[in-house]
């Protein structure tokens, strides 16, 4: 997945159900403009991005978003390259070696799954020995995005694109 077309279909269906198709079209146009503006100046870069919702355990693999995920579409629109894009599934497990070799320049923490606060989860991920030497951690390009706007259609998907695009621009 390389887009958020599911969001646009959702808005169209909802606007049709409420018999306000023009308002739906305007909302879609506004979101498309937000996404386009957020991703401006990122098309010429190749910035590897890793998504995490928990601290990785090197022995068990690194759980992340695969190439078929909605998150992959948002990362792509933000100008990043999901390091698991070749794994054509929603959720993928990568080896520690694969993650180290990919050297993510941006880490996106997917909030809303962990028991700890966003700040605690971010601190634990940054402190992870597996990730400590990545460019993302060394350069401070670790961002938190709520799962409700990263993993599924939402009227706020453009906010997720913006957050990741800002990190991609910082890494470039």
TrEMBL record:
Residues 1-172 form the Fe/B12 periplasmic-binding domain. InterPro entries: ABC_Transporter_SBP, ABC_transptr_periplasmic_BD. SUPFAM superfamilies: Helical backbone' metal receptor. Belongs to the bacterial solute-binding protein 8 family. This is ABC transporter (Iron.B12.siderophore.hemin), periplasmic substrate-binding component. It comes from Agrococcus casei LMG 22410.
